[in-house]
Amino acid sequence: MFPLRVPLLAILVSVALCQYDYDYPPVSMLGPSGPNCNQECDCPISFPSAMYCDSRKLKFVPIVPTGIKYLYLQNNQIQEIKAGVFDNVTDTLRWLILDHNQITNGKIEKGTIDKLTALEKLFFSYNDLTEPIIPPSKSLDELKMMHNKLSKFPSGLLTDKENLTSVNVQFNQLTSDAISGAFKGPKKMLSLDVSHNKLKKLPAGVPSSLEILYADFNDIDSVGAGYLNKLPSLQYLRISNNKLVDSGLPAGVFNVTSLVELDLSFNKLQSIPEINEQLEQLYLQANEINKFDLGSLCKFVGPLNYSHLKHLRLDANNITHSSMPPESSNCLRQASNIMFE
């Protein structure tokens, strides 16, 4: 097998590109299958802890034999998970990949996922779930349930997930009320993606350990005062393609030292929001900005006081390069790319 332990940069790449962690060579290259493998699948003797059942037009989850830690069931036509299929691996199965199937909550019987006490990764994207399925495992570190029909995420489901670092629930039907308190508990969570839902505000009660928060393509029109002060480790914040307006942004709401990247593009802002001088990437394209307020980028300018912005996008607004005041070059001395068109 090829289990991964990825640093923040790798998590960023995975989130940004919506890539998965289960790429592997063709099964035919991994050698013959072991004798205890389900006949619908392959269990290469060179990787005896893995069972490959992907892309085989399966309608159901086959019984998993003893010793399997990594189970690949993506790209099938699975509609139900029957009780007993995981009985041999309740305390040993680590990865369960169920992406691209047709599974609904009502077709997941008791005595299946609810018995998996050692699961580390649960990938359940591109199915028909209306609420999340969470295993009892305290070892869970990655949860992906993108492209489902999730309309609620009850609070308390993740309370004991002390090792959970990454949650992806984009492309669902979640509202702000539906996820109220949903992400409280995990003290090691680094990445949360709630993009492409129906949120009217950023999720409340997220762990202070969070370093990546993506909430693009929602209906967010404001950010609460002090919201980012509760997230001292946050480095990457994306709220593009929402309904943000100037009146919905309290003074200095984005002026925090931890942020490296801030994406507010494709909103309805008319002015540049105040940022901290430590920010390196600022995306404001496709808003309604009509003035270049240098004070939003640099409170003071001097030998040691200047903006660390490297990239600033202001294209598709109501300003041009000529809108920049003469002292901008001193404030933005590290900027290698400022786009107006």
Overview in brief:
This protein is largely without helices or strands and 341 residues long. The protein contains 2 helices and 13 strands.
Structural description of this entry:
This protein is mostly loops. The chain has two helices and 13 strands, in the order αββββββββββββαβ. It has helices at 8-17, 328-331; strands spanning 50-52, 70-72, 95-97, 121-123, 142-144, 166-168, 191-193, 212-214, 236-238, 261-263, 281-283, 311-313, 337-339. It has a 13-stranded parallel β-sheet with strand order 1-2-3-4-5-6-7-8-9-10-11-12-13, covered by helices on one side. β12 (311-313), α2 (328-331) and β13 (337-339) form a beta-alpha-beta unit. It is elongated and about 75 Å long. It starts with 7 loop residues before the first helix and ends with a strand. 40% of the residues are buried. Residues 1-19 have low confidence and may be disordered.
Strand arrangement in the largest pleated sheet: 1-2-3-4-5-6-7-8-9-10-11-12-13
Give the biggest sheet: 13 strands, parallel
Distance separating the two termini: 48 Å
Look at the structure and give the mean pLDDT: 92
Shape: elongated
Report the β-strand fraction as a percent range. 5-15%
**What is the string of SSEs from the N terminus onward?**
HEEEEEEEEEEEEHE
Low-confidence stretches: 1-19
Which range best describes the helical content: under 10%, 10-25%, 25-40%, 40-55%, 55-70% or over 70%?
under 10%
The overall strand count is: 13
Cα-atom radius of gyration: 23 Å
The number of distinct helices, counting runs of at least 4 residues, comes to: 2
